[in-house]
Write a structure and sequence with these properties.
The protein is mainly beta and 106 residues long. The chain is built from no helices and eleven strands. Strands 1, 2, 3, 4, 6, 9 and 11 form a seven-stranded antiparallel sheet that branches. It has a four-stranded antiparallel sheet with strand order 5-10-7-8, with no helix packed on it.
């Protein structure tokens, strides 16, 4: 899903890694939250308290979820999950990678 009706959006961006990763928080009427963001080329590490679903909406990346022991290529329209109290490393080799991060209930 790339359009979200009836939501509120935080106007102030979440900015990480000197502006190389930028996202905005979106809140839904039922209380759930997502972030919509872009990642510029580079390698970044994120920790996650809640389980997450990361959907790549444009571009591509390589991802290694903590304790998986593997690195996976994730193209446009594919996704990956991150368990609660975990983390992941993400690499964008070229262009811009756009994503939707959904915070899942444990």
């Amino acid at each position: 899903m790339k359009n979200f009706p009836n939501v509120s959006v935080d106007a102030v961006a979440n900015i990480y890694f000197d502006g190389r990763v930028v996202s905005h928080s979106v809140k839904f009427p039922d209380g759930t939250k997502k972030t919509l963001g872009i990642i510029f080329p580079g390698t970044y590490r994120f920790a996650s308290e809640a389980p997450e679903l990361m959907e790549i909406t444009d571009g591509s990346c390589e991802v290694s979820v903590d304790d998986s022991g593997t690195t996976r290529f994730v193209p446009t329209d594919e996704s990956f999950e991150v368990p609660a109290n975990s983390g992941f490393s993400i690499t964008v080799n070229s262009g811009v990678c756009q994503y939707i991060c959904s915070y899942l209930t444990p």
